[in-house]
Design brief:
The structure is a single chain. This protein is of the alpha+beta class. The protein folds into two domains: about 110 residues; about 110 residues, hypothetical protein PF0899 fold, CATH 3.30.2320. The mean pLDDT is about 80.
Length: about 250
C-alpha cells in the first residue's frame, strides 16, 4: 500500500481538527462541568466545615452557659445554705438570750418575792414584839420605863453643840410618851428639859402607845427619839439592809 503525502497531511489535519473540535465542544464542557462540580463540592465541604465550626462553637457556648448556670446555681445554693445556717445560728442565739433573760427575770422575781416575804415576816415579828412588849410594860408604872429613857434623851441633848441646841429650841416641840403622865411627872420633865434647853417652848404632852416605852420630842423642824419603837424601827431597818445586801 502506498501512502500519499497529501493524504497523510489531510488525515493529520483531520485529526487536528477533530481534536480541536473535541476539545472545544466535548472536553471543555466536561472539564467545566467537572470543575463546577469540584467547586460545588468544595463549596459544600467549606459550608459543611463552617457549619461544623458553628455547631462546635454553639455547642461550646451552650456548654459554657450550662457550666455558668451550674456554677450560679451552686453559688445560689451555697448562699441559701449560708443564709439558712446564719438564720439558724441567729435564732438559736436569740432563743438562748431570751431564755437567759427569762431566767434572770425569774430569779429576780423569786428574789423579790423572797425579800417581800422576809419583810412581811419581819413586820409581823416587829408588830408581835411590840405588842408583847407593850403588854408587858403596860403592867409597870409609866414613870418606871419612861424616866430612864428620858434621862438618856437628856444626855443626848446635852452632848449636842450649843448652836444645835439653840436651833432645836427655836420652834415649838411636843413631848410624846407611850402612857399618860401625871401632872407632877409632866412638870418634872418640863423642868429637866428647861435646864438643858432654856429657850425651849413645849407644846404639851401627847400619848402614843406605839412608842411602847420611851420619850420623844417632835416638831415641824426637829425630831428627837429615844423609844423602843425607834429602836425596833432601827433594828428592822438594819435587818432589811443586811438581807438586801446578802440577797444582792
Amino acid at each position: 500500500m502506498r501512502i500519499d503525502g497529501w493524504t497523510l497531511a489531510l488525515q493529520a489535519i483531520n485529526v487536528l481538527i477533530l481534536v480541536w473540535l473535541l476539545k472545544r465542544f466535548l472536553f471543555r464542557p466536561v472539564t467545566d462541568a467537572i470543575a463546577a462540580r469540584q467547586a460545588a463540592a468544595e463549596a459544600l465541604l467549606a459550608d459543611a466545615a463552617q457549619a461544623k465550626a458553628a455547631a462546635e462553637a454553639q455547642q461550646a457556648a451552650l456548654f459554657a452557659r450550662d457550666e455558668a448556670f451550674a456554677q450560679e446555681a451552686e453559688r445560689l445554693r451555697a448562699e441559701v445554705r449560708a443564709g439558712a445556717e446564719a438564720d439558724r445560728v441567729r435564732l438559736v442565739d436569740k432563743a438562748r438570750e431570751e431564755a437567759a433573760a427569762l431566767a434572770v427575770q425569774a430569779e429576780a422575781a423569786a428574789k423579790a418575792e423572797r425579800a417581800r416575804q422576809q419583810r412581811v415576816l419581819e413586820d409581823e415579828a416587829a408588830v408581835l414584839a411590840a405588842a408583847m412588849a407593850g403588854k408587858l410594860l403596860g403592867r409597870l408604872p409609866a414613870d418606871s420605863t419612861t424616866r430612864p429613857m428620858f434621862d438618856t434623851l437628856l444626855d443626848r441633848l446635852r452632848s449636842l453643840p450649843e448652836e444645835d441646841r439653840r436651833k432645836l429650841a427655836q420652834g415649838e416641840l411636843q413631848a410624846v410618851t407611850p402612857q399618860p403622865l401625871s401632872e407632877e411627872d409632866q412638870a418634872r420633865y418640863v423642868a429637866s428639859l428647861a435646864e438643858t434647853l432654856p429657850e425651849l417652848r413645849l407644846d404639851g404632852f401627847r400619848v402614843e402607845p406605839d412608842l411602847i416605852a420611851g420619850f420623844e420630842l417632835r416638831g415641824g423642824h426637829a425630831l428627837v427619839r429615844n423609844s423602843w419603837r425607834a429602836d425596833l424601827d432601827d433594828l428592822l431597818g438594819h435587818v432589811r439592809q443586811e438581807a438586801d445586801h446578802a440577797g444582792g
